[in-house]
Predict the 3D structure of the following.
Amino acid sequence: DPEKDAAAKLSAEKNLFTRPKLPPMDKTRVIFLDVDGVLIPTGSIETIWVDGVALPKRATLSDSDFSVAALGNLRSIVQQTGAMIVLSSEWRRTDKLKASISDILKKQDLPPLLEATDILTPRPELHKYGAILGWCERRSREIGRWLKDHPEVLSWVALDDLDFALADSVRVAGTPFMKCRSVHTDDKKCLTEADAAEAVRLILAPQDPHPHQRASAEAREVPDARNALICSTEDTLPERL
């Protein structure tokens, strides 16, 4: 709603210097951030297809591209959790895009982007089922790879307009279950207050974000390592993630 977003922008400008100070960054808590459909309404920016991925036609983004309400809701999550932001969006593919996204976050008194997930290769056997499934599954593996490289992380949430139930349906061992640790945004409304509240709940919820490491530890502690691995949450429904 343009009127609501204009009102939110005016409110954000008035409150820019009266907002509570953010807590120190807690690198044990992570927000995996998509941009298109989370902070920017899908279709509001002209895009081009590069290697099967829709990227902005412009080299950089501007403040006016972003939903001020969504930026405020992202800040609310950080305010309540201290979580660091890791860019998982396809728009991390160029340094200029990443820099412009980081600059806009800083203007909204949000932490700068210090990390981004790696770009992995889509699984070729999923191509016949359509681009969205392969895209979603690849993003899940990219997040899983980042988590494996950062064992200090204790809790996390993925903010995305992709429905990670798709990725979970074709998940391979070593990739985290995603649906229950994600907030699925409406790609036109972007990140809402309700979405932000759910993200805070997920970040503050007790969990095991590194089941592969827990399984490895169990394998060293029991005589039959194969049984420990079979019983890990990597290969069963996610009681803990």
